[in-house]
């Protein structure tokens, strides 16, 4: 009986996977990234409960200065490999983000999320600027690595942090003030 119990535990761990090894349950409709509004079915303005219902339970949530950050990540060789998350302020989602992963299966899921103009994590940042008519804001890392789209009180940040700042590695949508607090 002991051997059978051990086998059941091992099989359960294989099915569930290691702790901290989740990706959200993205909704892949077209578009699955709506600038300023939603990513993978998770919309700005949802409650934290609605966010959990939409993407599943996050790996971690923590609060700091009135902003709760909920993340989905894989455990990598040098620590957590963050792939997606959302930010909650006063009980409502104010921003949603996805980014590249070192884990190929997670990266494939994230790259399937696209805007109506076919921009996704992995797209050239120059293409995002061209398709969304986002001007280059200057030289240096800050100007080259970010393409920020503002639509009223909503913003979308296409971010390419690795020199030479050519490939988008994260996309964040949300309330401009919140997105600015996070990335600008």
CATH topology: Pathogenesis-related Protein p14a
Percentage of residues in strands: 25-35%
Main sheet makeup: 7 strands, antiparallel
Distance between the termini: 58 Å
Q: Could you tell me the number of beta strands?
A: 10
The figure for the number of domains is 1
Q: CATH superfamily assignment?
A: CAP
Question: Nearest-angstrom radius of gyration?
Answer: 18 Å
Show unreliable segments: 1-20
Which structural class do the helices and strands define?
A: alpha+beta
Helix tally? 6
Second-tier CATH architecture: 3-Layer(aba) Sandwich
Strand order, main sheet: write it out.
4-5-6-7-10-9-8
User: Any idea of the CATH class?
Assistant: Alpha Beta
| Average of the residue pLDDT scores | 83
Q: What best-fitting shape do the alpha-carbon axes yield?
A: globular
In terms of quaternary structure, the protein is single chain
Can you give keywords for this protein?
single chain, 184 residues, alpha+beta, Pathogenesis-related Protein p14a, seven-stranded antiparallel beta sheet, three-stranded antiparallel beta sheet, 6 helices, 28% helix, 32% strand
How would you describe the overall organization of this protein?
With 184 residues, the protein is α+β, with helices and mostly antiparallel strands. The protein has a single domain (18-183), classed as Pathogenesis-related Protein p14a (3-Layer(aba) Sandwich), CATH 3.40.33. The protein has 6 helices and 10 strands. A 7-stranded antiparallel β-sheet has the order 4-5-6-7-10-9-8, sandwiched between helices. A 3-stranded antiparallel β-sheet has the order 1-2-3. Strand 5 (67-76) and strand 6 form a beta hairpin. The radius of gyration is 18 Å and the shape is globular. Mean pLDDT is 83; it is low at 1-20.
């Amino acid at each position: 009986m002991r051997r059978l119990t051990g086998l059941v535990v091992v099989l359960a761990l294989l099915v569930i996977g290691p702790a901290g090894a989740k990706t959200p349950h993205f909704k892949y409709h077209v578009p699955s990234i709506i600038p300023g509004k939603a990513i993978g079915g998770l919309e700005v303005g949802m409650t934290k409960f609605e966010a959990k219902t939409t993407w599943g339970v996050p790996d971690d949530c923590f609060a700091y200065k009135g902003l709760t950050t909920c993340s989905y990540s894989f455990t990598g060789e040098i620590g957590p490999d963050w792939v997606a998350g959302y930010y909650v302020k006063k009980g409502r989602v104010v921003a949603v983000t996805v980014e590249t992963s070192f884990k190929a299966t997670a990266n494939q899921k994230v790259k399937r999320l696209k805007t109506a103009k076919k921009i996704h994590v992995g797209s050239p940042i120059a293409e995002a600027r061209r398709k969304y008519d986002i001007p280059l804001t200057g030289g240096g890392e800050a100007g080259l690595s970010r393409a920020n789209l503002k639509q009223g009180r909503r913003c979308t940040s296409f971010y390419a942090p690795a020199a030479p700042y050519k490939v988008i590695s994260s996309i964040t949508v949300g309330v401009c003030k919140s997105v600015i607090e996070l990335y600008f």
